[in-house]
Amino acid sequence: MVRLLLSIKAELENVTDLQPLDDFEYFFKVKCNSCHETHPKSVSLNRHVLSSYELSGSRGNTANFVWRCGECKRESSAKFEDAYGVKPYVAENGQFGPLLVVECRGLEFVDFEPRGMWKCKGMKGSIFSDVDLESGEWNDYDEKAALPVGVSEFGNQWTRA
Ligand SMILES: [Zn+2]
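Above: the input entities. Below: the C-alpha cells describing the complete assembly.
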C-alpha cells in the first residue's frame, strides 16, 4: 500500500479556505503499477461511496475505488484516508497546499481534474458555494466585503504522503 497526498494550488483573490463541496466527485487519472499503463480517461471517486471487494480470498475489504487494468487485468483499489479528511486550501502566492490523502493498492493517481463545485470564504465571512473551476477560473463579487473575488491558476500535484 502507498499513501499518496494530493496537493492543490490556486491564485485566490480576496477569498480563503477553498475546498470541494462535501458530495464532490473526484476525477483522477489512474496509472497501473503492474504494467505502468496510464488509463486515458479520468475515473471518478466519491469519499462517501464505498464498495466491498475480495482481495486474494480475504473478504470484507472496502475501498472508494476498485479497478481492473485494461492492459494487464490486475485488480487494484484506492481508499480516501478518513482520518486525514479534506484540508481547506489557504496558501497564498499560489503555493501548493495539502488537500487529502488516498491509500492506494496496485495503482497510483497522476492527475486531478477539478470538475464539480467548490466553496470558499470571503474576507467578511461570506460563503461562496458555487465555485466552478472546470474552466480553470471563477470570478464573482463579494457584496459584504465590497470586493471582487476569484480563483484562478488551479494546479494539482501528487506526492508520497
Ligand atoms: Zn496494468
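Note for the figure: The first strand starts at residue 2 and ends at 13.
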